[in-house]
Structures are given as C-alpha cells and as structure tokens.
Task: inverse folding
C-alpha cells in the first residue's frame, strides 16, 4: 500500500471522529436548551458510553464533546497538510525521466549540429549557383547591349545613306528642273507675245473679232494656270522634319521633355525614332503610349508634303508610320480623312481650305513608298 493511500485512510478516520464529536456537542447544546435544569441536568448517555458512566451532567458532556471535536480536528489538519514521505518508486521514476530528458537533449544537440552543417553546405552551394547565374546574366546583358549598339549603328548609317542619296537626287534634279522651267517660260512668253500681237491685229479688224479676242484671252489664262501647275508639280515637296533636327521640333515635345530626352542621349529626331518606348518612359515623364504617339507623328512629318495638321489627321485615321502610310489605299484613306476633317473643321482646329485633297493624299502615299 502506498504512502498516499495510507495517509488518505488516516485523514478519513480522523475526519469521521471529528464529525461524531461535533454531533455530541450539538446534542449537549440541545439538552441544555430543552431541559429546565440547564447545565446541571443529569442524563444517562447512549451505548457504549453508559457502560462506563451511568449518570452524566450536560455541562461535562458539552465541554468534553467540544474538546474532543477540536482535538480530532487538529489531528485531521495535521494528517491532511503534513508532507508525506517520498515514495521510492516515485524517486526512481523521476531519475528515469531525468535520464531520458538528458538523452533527448543530447540527441537534439547532435541533430542541430548536423542540421547546421547541412545548412552551411547548402548555403555555400546556393551562393556558388547565384554567382554562376550572375556571371551568365552579365554576359547575356553585354551581348544584348552589343547587339543593340550594332542595330543602332546600322539604322543611323542607313539613314545617313538615304540622306546622302536624297541630297544627290536634289543636286541632279534641280538643275534639270530649272532648265525645263526656263525653257517653258521662254516658250510661254513667246506664245504670249505672239498672242498679244495677234490680239492687236484682231482688234484692228473691228467689233466682229471681239468674240475671238475673248476666247484667246481665256486660252491664255488657262495656259498660265497650267504653267503654274506644271511648276508646282516639278518642284519637289520638302519634308517638315528631318532625322537630324532637334526632338523639340516634334509637336508635343516641350522644353522639359526635351531636356529629359537629351539626358538619356536622344539628341535628334532620328535617335527618337529608333529608341525603345518602354526605356524612354522609364526615364522620362512620358508614358509608353505617348512616346509611340510622338514617334508616329515624327515619322509622318518626315513624309514630303505632310504638315502638322495632316499628321494629326493621319494619326486619327490609324496611320502610325511611314510603312503604314505606304500600304494605304488612296480612296479608302481619303474617305477616312474626310470624315475626321469635318469634325476638325466644326471644332475650329482647321479651316475648310486646309482639308487635304485626294491628289495630296495620293502624293503622300507615293512619297512614303
């Protein structure tokens, strides 16, 4: 039997005796209250006390019961709250538990050391891989930069060659055009002189020749108009914008945006055209869509005969560059621009005379090709 069980039995017995003693004290109080003799009343106690004492006063019975109650209550408290002796089995259990905890602690420490070694090895492998990936990325970026530089150089070289070819054509064509114009002027002046002489002769003939003179005058006027048209057709249109001009020449690029473009190396219209819109948007206040819009306007202004109003109309007609303009059907494009131009006229952005004609649109498409 364990010490805790023995202790429990002793506490129970002492508590029971305390309860019996308290009942006896309560019985003595009742006898004292109900009998006229009070504390001097004598009675015969119950079995087995009557075997020892035949007559007992209530006074003695009361005080004896109270004393026994407190005595048993004290023994009960001592038995209940005193520290029991340590159980040997419990001591063995605690020793075994401590040994198990020590073994588990050692195993845990060994496991942590192994994990630390594995983590250190994994970290070194990861750092080596990151170093290798970084070197590969650097090599890739260098290759991409080199390709971009080569592409830019090729584009700029192509633009320079085209400019030289255009300049050569101008130098070759202008003298021939001027010579043709001079010949046409001389012939026209001679014809006009001959016609004037004829008119003077006709005037001398009288009133009957008045109708013929008016017809000759009308013919001269028509001839003069044809000459003007011929001259306008022989003189080539000059583009509003060239690749060597400053970015601020493009409508929509102000001083602040121009300063930002120059800061990233875009110092001409040609460099603006070959720039990546996303890269420009990252370093300037302009969005990628705005950069694409400015590039489209710049391309259209490089087409001879297209001014800023014409470029806006073409942009509204979803023509965003020289290649798209060259692929357009003249009649369909004229129909689109006509509808857009009507709205612009109502808004006061252009006048009725500034609306492009079909001939002008055909000329734009030819120049773009």
Result:
């Amino acid at each position: 039997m364990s010490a805790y069980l023995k202790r429990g039995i002793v506490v129970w017995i002492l508590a029971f005796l305390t309860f019996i003693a308290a009942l006896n004290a309560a019985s003595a109080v009742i006898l004292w209250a109900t009998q006229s003799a009070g504390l001097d009343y004598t009675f015969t106690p119950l079995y087995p006390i009557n075997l020892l004492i035949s007559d007992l006063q209530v006074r003695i019975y009361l005080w004896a019961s109270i004393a026994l109650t407190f005595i048993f209550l004290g023994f009960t408290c001592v038995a209940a709250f005193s520290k029991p002796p340590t159980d040997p089995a419990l001591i063995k259990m605690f020793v075994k538990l401590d040994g198990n905890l020590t073994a588990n602690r050692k195993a845990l420490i060994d496991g942590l050391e192994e994990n630390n070694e594995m983590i250190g090895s994994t970290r070194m492998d990861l750092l080596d891989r990151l170093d290798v990936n970084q070197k590969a990325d650097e090599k890739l970026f260098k290759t991409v930069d080199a390709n971009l530089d080569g592409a830019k150089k090729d584009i700029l070289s192509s633009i320079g060659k085209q400019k030289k070819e255009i300049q050569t054509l101008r130098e070759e064509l202008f003298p021939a055009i001027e010579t043709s114009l001079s010949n046409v002027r001389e012939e026209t002046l001679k014809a006009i002189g001959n016609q004037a002489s004829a008119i003077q002769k006709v005037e001398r003939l009288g009133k009957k020749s008045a109708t013929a003179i008016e017809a000759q005058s009308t013919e001269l006027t028509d001839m003069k108009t044809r000459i003007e048209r011929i001259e306008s057709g022989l003189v080539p249109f000059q583009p509003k914008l060239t690749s060597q001009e400053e970015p601020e020449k493009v409508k929509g690029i102000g001083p602040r945006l121009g300063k930002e473009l120059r800061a990233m190396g875009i110092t001409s219209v040609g460099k603006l055209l070959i720039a990546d819109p996303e890269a420009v948007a990252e370093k300037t206040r302009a969005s990628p869509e705005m950069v694409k819009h400015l590039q489209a306007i710049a391309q259209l202004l490089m087409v001879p005969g297209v001014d800023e109003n014409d470029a806006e109309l073409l942009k509204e007609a979803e023509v965003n560059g020289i290649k798209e303009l060259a692929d357009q059907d003249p009649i369909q494009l004229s129909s689109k621009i006509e509808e857009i131009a009507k709205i612009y006229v109502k808004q006061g952005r252009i006048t009725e005379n500034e609306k492009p004609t079909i001939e002008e649109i055909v000329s734009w498409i030819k120049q773009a090709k």
Remarks:
- The beta strands are 42-43, 56-57.
- The first strand starts at residue 42 and ends at 43.
- The mean pLDDT is 77.
